[in-house]
Amino acid sequence: MALIDLIEASKKFGDKIVLNEVNFSANEGEKIAIIGKNGEGKSTFLKTLLGALPLDSGRVIRQNGKSIAMLSQTVDFNANLSVKEAIKQELAEIYNALEEYEILHKKLEEDPSNKDYLKKIDTLMTLIDSKDAWNIESKIIRVLKEFSLLEYENRIISTLSGGEIRRVGLCILLLKNPDILLLDEPTNHLDVYMTSFLEELLKNSKMCVIFIS
Asked: What percentage of the chain has pLDDT greater than the value 70?
């Protein structure tokens, strides 16, 4: 069964037809590149997969429980935050789950037979496991090192270059560890070394990756 399907998808803006009864499937672990000229609907295609843009007709079907995330051409962060703060803000779901897990674990020590606590803890563990997030702080440091950003962790976003902001966005996506990763022109603003590094990283990833260029 495919992770995500696009079935007879159509989308137009005014009189311009951007997608015309498009069918598409992506499976677990696949790496798919879509190449075309500017203005031919590549970004629209990704946004429909993400669910950020409604179709005029057709359907998007994603396996239940499978997560999806996208790096857009323009990465938008709160310009007043530091790199580390921006990352933590984007990973709020993970941090909230870890905090709630700790709280419930302490409550369970006082009431070990509470079924509601046990059920909720099991749900939280599933989420944290799926994101491989038990050691999230050490993972952040490792990913920042990999993207040559560790020395920038306390820098304010507004002081970074376009390429540095792009790398922060890529760090966040890898830390979120989605089942399906959508990349819109991922090598924009990246130098040759970082482009090569990203290619190897994605090639060896277990994620389903769909990127456009």
From this structure: 100
Q: Over the stretch 120-150, which tens digit does the pLDDT of each residue have?
A: 999 999 999 988 889 999 999 999 998 999 9
Contact 94, 177 (CB under 8 A): no
Q: Which two tokens stand for residue 140?
A: 């952040």
- Cβ atoms of residues 90 and 53 within 8 Å: no
pLDDT at residue 73 greater than cutoff 80: no
Range(s) of the domain holding residue 158: 83-179
Determine, yes or no, domain membership for 1. no
Say whether 98 sits in a helix, a strand or coil.
Answer: helix
Give the whole-angstrom CA distance, residue 132 versus residue 164: 25
Instruction: Report the number of distinct structural domains present in the chain.
Output: 1
Do the strands 68-71 and 180-184 form a parallel or antiparallel pair, or are they unpaired? parallel
